[in-house]
Hints:
Layout: E1 3-7, E2 21-25, E3 30-31, E4 39-44, E5 50-54, E6 59-63, E7 69-73, E8 75-76, E9 82-83, E10 86-91, E11 97-101, E12 106-110, E13 116-121, E14 132-133, E15 139-143, E16 158-164, E17 169-176, E18 203-206, E19 212-216, E20 221-226, E21 229-232, H1 245-257, E22 260-262, E23 270-272, H2 278-287, E24 297-304, E25 310-314, E26 323-327, E27 333-339, E28 343-348, E29 352-358, E30 364-370
Parallel strand pairs: 8-9
Antiparallel strand pairs: 1-2, 1-27, 3-30, 4-5, 5-6, 6-7, 10-11, 11-12, 12-13, 14-15, 15-16, 16-17, 18-19, 19-20, 20-21, 22-23, 24-25, 25-26, 26-27, 28-29, 29-30
Helix pairs in contact: 1-2
Amino acid sequence: MRLTTQLTLGLALLPASLATAQTTLRAPDATSAESFSLIRGVLELKDGRVLVADWRDQRVGLLDRDLRLIRAVGRVGAGPAEYRLPGALLPWRGDSALLADQGNARFAVIAPEGRIVRMIRADRPGMVAPGGTDRAGRIYYAIPPWARGQGPTHPDSVRIARFDPASGREEPVAMIRGSTRPRDQGPRRTPSLPFVAFAPRDAFRVKDDGTVVVVRSGDYRVERVLEGRRSGGPANPWAREPVRQADRLAFVTDFLNGSAMSGRGPDGGMGLAPIPSQSELARMVESNEFAETLPPFIPAGVVLAPDGELWVERGRHAGEPAIYDRFDLDGVRTGQVMLDRGRTLLALGRTHLYVAVSDADGLQQLERYRRP
């Protein structure tokens, strides 16, 4: 179990002025005894305890500083202190946390002691898949183009909005490039992806002061937007690697295993999608549209630390280890971090990072490493 930090000289990865350096952390300083099916949310609390949301097993746990389970948080259902398909975990006002309850289209407010104390409706389009919160308790999310009456030909104009639960006010804060829609959107005999897989798209996260941090996919750079004012770092070149057949299969498999479907829930709402067979996966790969080259980064792999440092997962082939670029507050790339195979960064804390490691059966454990 290793976490390797690399500062790379030349090869169009980092400016040649940076000195070559490499540091290896040989083992995590904590590993959870609990196993999970699909971790979708991790949040380090101010005292070092950790909240974890398992999307597929539909459970939320409060862990101590050694990643041992203290207690379960809430339970599955649609009533008070219940949730379905728990997703992102975000800091909220005070020391509380916000849990995206995707199955019930709402948020659960979790008090520091690990109790769900309040529910907030998330009935605005895109709201239940938030990109961040600020210290005022406002929630930031991307409004899907269909909600604004846009057709499939406007991938570059997705609006980022913020919602204030106290006032009920929604306001726009930024624009990003969204998913590219497939050219053929007619009826199909096999399940279809709602976008072109591997096509570049922007990603965003939010600092506690309300700064929207956007990773632009066009020229791969980091931009910050605060109250209409924009600033950012330089563009970063990347090698355009062709998408392979194994990449397509892995993408479709991960997408289906991590997707919800309407009508699958106990009350006819959102529920877990059925796990497809290998033949079904193969047919879906052949019938859907994929970009020709890998994107510069993976939007779901963009992670913001409390101090504002940004880690961005680079586009990669199936089976390769995950590599993360690190960006400072000015949007300048300062180094790279490489994880061992089978590991994915989930969250950054003040002094630690949290990684999911998968075994041969697909079960996950949570690992904690000190931030290099």
